[in-house]
Design goal:
The complex is a heterodimer of chains A (about 90) and B (about 325).
Chain A lengths: L6 E7 L6 E8 L3 H12 L7 E6 L11 H9 L19
Antiparallel strand pairs in A: 1-2, 1-3
Chain B lengths: L15 H4 L2 H12 L12 H20 L1 H5 L8 H26 L5 H9 L16 H19 L8 H29 L3 H20 L11 H6 L7 H19 L9 E3 L4 E3 L5 H11 L3 H14 L1 H20 L1
Antiparallel strand pairs in B: 1-2
Helix pairs in contact in B: 3-5, 5-8, 7-8, 7-9, 7-11
Classes of the chains: A alpha+beta (about 90), B mainly alpha (about 325).
Chain lengths: ~90, ~325
């Protein structure tokens, strides 16, 4: 059994208007410390204006081995892409 | 900071490959050959996992131990400006260690085990940190040469096949350039000083040049694991290729500083388009790997002391969390 503090995933919003993006992870005993560690570890050069920390154990992930089945339905539906439609040149930009 | 395997070969059991599903291996090899990234939950051969865990954790340990020779000068930096710069750099090294430990942990080894391996001497770290930092010019030489060599090593690793390692390297490389530039800047300033200060720069160069070249690891013909690591895109360039690049880039910088490279055999080779340089003392390298470096014992003692002396902080944080969660459940 590991003596490590729980692992937290760190997300940073680089600036207003952008989404939070995953930056890495930190170990911390609680959420408050996780935020402090995230700040010290991942934002030493103004990398962000907002931080999220989420317990890694709470992340539910898809199985890479099932990726084929999980994402296949989109592959066969090429009519969902604009390039599927061949329009006359006269319709300049659409 | 340092990425060449130091203890590969000893416990290497490629035999596991024989027991793994050939179809899975073939898919994996094809993905890697196609420059795809491997992510933590993807299937990977046991030997790939083991090699990476060793390489990334050695790299992490090197960042952490690397704080010691520089931390040594924090209280004696000659000005507030230099002290602030050095403090920021040492903090970066700690951060780099943390990025890398996180990447190594995604392969299934806990932080606790990684740190334990460092503290018991089971895990290796870069030989370069077993040399002492004797004078202030050493701090400049470390930034310029040691971080310079590290950059040569790390830039190609931004495209290494293991996703978490590659992403950690992108972050590290962004910050590393400051480290090298502040070191060179420090030396330039010393070179404008008194003859004694200029002599300090030459002295630092004389002591750090060869150990910096050793940072790239053994020569290719004596680096048995290189071929597999290159095939798996764990390494992207060989030790000798990177070493040559470093020499070619660094010699003109030494000339600009106005100091000599301590190698009588160093000579521009017009035909090759590269500098030729003298033999590296590999006996010294292996002795330092074995822990016979001038300061190896001191480094480990300082590292363990830092860990033990900080125990009360970790315990206090645990106690605080325990009380908070009791209060939450009572409320």
């Amino acid at each position: 059994m590991s003596k490590d503090w729980p692992l937290w995933e760190v997300f940073i919003r680089a600036r207003g208007g952008l989404e939070h993006r995953h930056a890495g992870s930190v170990h911390a005993p609680d959420a408050e410390m996780a935020l402090h560690h995230a700040r010290d570890t991942y934002t030493r050069r103004m990398e962000g204006v907002s931080l999220w920390v989420v317990k890694s154990a709470d992340v539910v992930a898809s199985d890479p081995e099932q990726a084929g089945e999980l994402f296949e339905p989109a592959v066969s539906k090429i009519y969902r892409h604009p390039t599927f439609y061949d329009l006359p040149d006269a319709v300049k930009h659409m | 900071m340092y990425t060449t395997e130091l203890d590969g070969g000893k416990d290497r059991k490629v035999a596991t490959l024989a027991t793994e599903d050939p179809e899975l291996i073939a898919t994996f090899e094809a993905r890697v050959a196609n420059d795809e990234f491997i992510e933590p939950k993807d299937w990977m051969p046991e030997a790939y996992r083991r090699t990476l865990t060793r390489q990334i954790s050695q790299h992490a340990h090197s960042e952490i131990v690397g704080m010691l020779p520089e931390g040594n000068w924090l209280t004696r930096a000659p000005s507030l400006k230099r002290k602030a710069i050095l403090l920021a750099k040492v903090q970066d090294e700690g951060g780099h260690g943390l990025y890398l430990y996180c990447a190594a942990e995604t392969l299934g080894t806990s932080r606790d085990e990684l740190i334990e391996a460092l503290h018991t001497g089971k895990a290796k770290y870069s030989t370069i940190f077993n040399y002492p930092s004797l004078n202030w010019a050493d701090i400049g030489a470390i930034g310029w040469l040691v971080d310079g060599a590290a950059i040569m090593n790390q830039v190609p690793l931004q495209r290494t096949s293991y996703g978490p390692y590659a992403r950690a390297m992108v972050r590290v490389c962004k910050e590393e350039s400051f480290h090298q530039r502040q070191g060179y800047d420090l030396l330039l300033e010393l070179m404008k000083g008194t003859p004694a200060q200029q002599a300090m720069v030459q002295d630092a160069m004389n002591r750090w040049w060869w150990p910096s070249l050793m940072m790239f690891g053994p020569p290719d013909d004596n680096s048995p694991n290189s071929a597999q690591s290159i095939r798996w895109r764990i390494k992207r360039e060989t030790n000798d290729e990177l070493r040559q690049k470093f020499v070619d880039a660094t010699v003109p910088q030494a000339e600009l500083l106005g100091i000599a490279v301590p190698d009588p055999n160093l000579k521009w080779n017009e035909e090759r388009g590269h500098y030729d340089f003298g033999e590296i003392d590999w006996e010294e390298f292996y002795a330092v790997v074995r822990g016979e470096g001038p300061t190896a014992k001191e480094r480990m003692k300082a590292r363990r002391a830092a860990w033990d002396d900080g125990a009360w902080v970790r315990e206090a944080a645990d106690a605080y969390e325990a009380r908070q969660s009791t209060r939450r459940s009572a409320a």
